[in-house]
Write a structure and sequence with these properties.
Blueprint: E1 7-12, H1 17-26, E2 32-38, H2 47-50, E3 76-79, H3 90-95, E4 100-103, H4 113-119, E5 133-134, H5 137-145, E6 149-151, H6 155-169, E7 177-183, H7 198-201, E8 206-207, H8 216-227, E9 233-239, E10 246-253, H9 262-269, E11 276-279, E12 294-301, E13 304-311, H10 315-330
Parallel strand pairs: 1-2, 1-3, 3-4, 4-6, 5-6, 7-9, 11-12
Antiparallel strand pairs: 7-10, 8-9, 10-13, 12-13
Helix pairs in contact: 1-10, 5-10, 6-8
Amino acid sequence: MMHKSGKNIIILGAGGLAAGELIRLLSMHPETGEIKAISRSQKGKKLYETHPALRHLNSSSFHDLSILENIEKEDIIFCALPHGTSQKYMEDLMAKDPACIIDIAADYRLKNEDDYTSVYAEHQNFNLAEKFIYGLPELNSTLIKDSKYIANPGCFATAAELLLLPLAKAAMLPDNSSVFAVTGSSGSGIQPKAGTHHPHRSGNMYAYKLLNHQHEPEINQLLSEAAGKSVKTRLIPHSGPFVRGIHASTYFKHESFCNFDSQTLYKDFYANCPFVSVLDTPVKIKEVATSNFVHIHVHQIKEEVVITLALDNLCKGAAGQAIQNMNLYMGYDETCGLTHPGAFPC
């Protein structure tokens, strides 16, 4: 898969849904050269046999791990492996000294090992986590520009963090906040299971992983950093009867909001963030599906505030944000290859 010029891309775990989206977006990126898609389970298959929307790119096939023996210093590596898998390869990948490594999984998002083991499993080389910058551009763009190792945020985490970040930075985030969020079936991955099986999902909505979702420590880590103090936010995750997107909302009632314009706070905070728009009307998933854009609506009456957000879980929640991070580190325009609007209807 070649362009006339540009950096070569290696994608580990290229058989997953986020990886398919990554290949699709990178194939249209003006700074991308050859894309090498690695998947042990899909080795030898054409890309479109796993990712049908890629049929018209060309006849590229999945590679096996032997590609990793020939990593060059100019290569950009995306790890789109299942959680807990990239850590098995990371030390060797770093030793090859590629241009940049972006991990889309959760292996290096958290800075506290106890937090990691509490929601995932034992980590085999957690000492490498200190080398990674958490890749939420709306907070860490300056750090991302200077770090060749980037931990891409989770999809629910991205939604909750962007929903609450301006309040946290302004020291206006009330204690014991919570985020109600609904995600589409693509958030459950490419392997069929009860949570994504159509008869189970269609016309249905249900909560899951209550008080124990793996993105909670990630959300609290980021918001605590922004607030300059310990923050405890609860995520209330739900599965919805649609394929792509996340809709998240939060509600506050506090006397501190009586003389505070929360909508202006949000508009000012995100004024220089190219992918975040604060709207005057309620947000809808269909307006951002398949795009890297995020829509936020702030509605306030006296001391009561409701904030809602919509984003695409596979794009801004995974592959698109990973490319946004690549753009920042590599010195490209932050929006490069990501300005396409969403697809409506979808």
